[in-house]
Design brief:
- It contains eight helices and 39 strands.
- It is an alpha/beta fold.
- The chain has two domains: 4-229, Spore Coat Polysaccharide Biosynthesis Protein SpsA, Chain A (Alpha-Beta Complex); 235-455, UDP N-Acetylglucosamine Acyltransferase, domain 1 (3 Solenoid).
- Strands 12-15-17-19-22-25-28-31-34-37-39 form an eleven-stranded parallel β-sheet, covered by helices on one side. Strands 13, 14, 16, 18, 20, 21, 23, 26 and 29 form a nine-stranded parallel β-sheet that branches.
- Helix 2 (57-71) links the parallel strand 4 and strand 5 (75-80).
- The chain is elongated.
- The structure holds uridine-diphosphate-N-acetylglucosamine and calcium ion (CA).
- Residues 9, 11-12, 52, 54, 81, 84-87, 89-90, 108-110, 144-145, 158, 160, 174-177, 203-205, 231 line the site of uridine-diphosphate-N-acetylglucosamine (UD1).
């Protein structure tokens, strides 16, 4: 098999994005467009990938080199194109870095949704010896290069929209911007390019007529799914491709049996903060209501139910757990774990290092950070647990908090099994509440409470009999 070398054009400016960020670094499903394209190189088991950069080159190269170092299975190089004199000129910059024995697959850094099977078919059509074009039928071909065929149906050339005659503009089969070509043929053709055309650019597409003139057959692999070759030029197009990509992911999950209330209201993204790839791993009979956003790697055990509008990142939810609406779970780098049969939310917040055992209950407006809750522990209302170890069956009252931060350092709170913490308590860490102890409501606890004891720390209630409230003075 001929080795594959990928060439990705990413020098363009992307003016219509109106953004400081170079276009190919704009994110689709949390992942830069260019990285989606680099994934294609991995799918094709490419030997190497060359990215042609220009506008924002330093930024594009830095953002891509880091990601590639972590996961690439191929050699990655960057070649600068300055100034940008057209797609043919872009490919010319890469020629000195191409190896003669390879098949070059030309891709665009702003076309993220091409299916690996499509590129595979294109490479097969090239067969290591022909120029092969990926073409697509478009109802409105305005702006694209048209595929000009002879009377016998064979491809004769590509004519750019601006250079096309009225008759040629009526052609609806267009060049997608993606081709496969043997490297040894490419270099001599590129050397012959001129910029004698409507845009004064060196058109890569002019090599098609050169191949024909050399008596070489040109293959066209025609697809009908325009999405696969759609580029991003504006925020609107980016959003359209985002929805299309999310729908694909939703459909794949539904094929596995996951029940999404609405595949059009589902999002699964890479985690840009941690670099974690999007992965939603579901057991059987998982149900996900509308408007949920999953980020990074999320595992949902058998029978898990996720209510509407939850955001869940880098977390694992055990079998049978129910996450009620508007819950925010974010494990960031540390991860977050919800035990089997747990009940979370509505309006709960689990932060990095939240480790909940089986059948734990976390209710509305409860925040848990870097804390372990053993099986059956409950914090049902308006509470904070930070840097705490909570034993089995503990009941943590409404409005209670761990004061884990003294302004300089964080300290741990240990609450042993079967403890009952009343409402509105402050547990000033470091502090330990012994097994089976009770803390009276409204207490500020600064000293350990021994096992089995009642700890109370609050002003004593007094009753003053016959108390007269001040009366309102009559107006003068
Ligand atoms: C190109 C094709 C056209 C095809 C269309 C599909 C040519 C001459 N025309 O047109 O037949 O239908 O794509 O979208 O190839 N780029 C560089 N350096 C440059 C110029 C462009 O890196 O000097 C990059 C751009 O950033 C972009 C890609 O190449 O990623 C395509 O360039 P663009 O200007 O969009 O080409 P089109 O005019 O759309
Ligand atoms: Ca384009």
């Amino acid at each position: 098999m001929t080795p594959i070398d990928i060439l990705i054009m990413a020098a363009g400016k992307g003016t219509r994005m109106k953004s400081r960020l170079p276009k190919v670094l704009q994110r689709l499903a949390g992942r830069p467009l260019l990285h989606h394209v680099l994934d294609q190189a991995a799918h094709l088991q490419a030997r190497s990938a060359i990215v042609i950069t220009g506008h924002g080159a330093t930024e594009v190269e830095a953002a891509t080199a880091i990601a590639a170092r972590v996961e690439a299975t191929f050699d990655l190089q960057f070649v600068r194109q300055e100034p940008q004199l057209g797609t043919g000129h872009a490919v010319q910059q890469a020629v000195p870095h191409l190896r003669e024995d390879g098949t070059v697959v030309v891709l665009s850094g702003d076309v993220p949704l091409t299916r690996p099977s499509t590129l595979r078919a294109l490479v097969d059509a090239c067969a290591g010896e022909r120029l092969a074009l990926l073409t697509v039928e478009l109802a409105d071909p305005t702006g694209y290069g048209r595929i000009v065929r002879g009377a016998d149906g064979a491809v004769r050339g590509i004519v750019e929209h601006k250079d096309a005659s009225e008759a040629q503009r009526a052609i609806t089969e267009v060049y997608s911007g993606i081709m496969a070509v043997p490297a040894r043929l490419l270099a001599p053709w590129l050397a012959l390019l001129t910029n004698d055309n409507a845009q004064g650019e060196y058109y890569l597409t002019d090599i098609v007529a050169m191949a024909v003139a050399d008596g070489l057959p040109v293959a066209a692999h025609r697809i009908s799914d325009a999405l696969q070759v759609a580029g991003v030029n504006s925020p609107l197009q980016l959003a359209e491709l985002e929805r299309a990509h999310q729908l694909r992911q939703a459909q794949a999950l539904m094929e596995q049996g996951v029940r999404l209330a609405d595949p059009a209201r589902f999002d699964l993204r890479d985690d840009a903060r941690t670099g974690a790839r999007a992965a939603l791993v579901c057991g059987q009979d998982v149900e996900i209501d509308v408007g949920c956003i999953f980020t990074g790697r999320v595992e949902l055990g058998e029978g898990v139910q996720i209510g509407a509008h939850c955001c869940i990142a880098n977390a694992s939810i055990g079998a049978g757990a129910i996450v009620h609406p508007y819950t925010h779970i974010d494990g960031e780098k540390l991860g977050a774990r919800v035990g089997e049969g747990a009940l979370i939310g509505p309006y709960a917040r689990l932060r990095p290092g939240a480790q909940l055992g089986r059948e734990v209950h976390i209710g509305n407006f409860v925040e848990v950070k870097n804390s372990t809750l053993a099986d059956g522990a409950k914090a049902n209302h308006l509470a904070y647990l930070g840097d705490a170890s909570v034993g089995e069956r503990v009941n943590y009252g409404a409005g209670s908090i761990t004061a884990n931060y003294d302004g300089a350092n964080k300290h741990r709170t240990v609450i042993e099994a079967d403890v009952h913490i009343g409402s509105n308590c402050v547990l000033v860490a470091p502090v330990t509440i012994g097994a089976g102890a009770t803390v009276g409501g409204g207490s500020t606890i600064t000293k350990d409470v021994p096992a089995g004891a009642l700890g109370v720390a609050r002003g004593k209630q007094v009753s003053i009999a016959d108390w007269h409230r001040p009366a309102k003075q009559p107006k003068p």
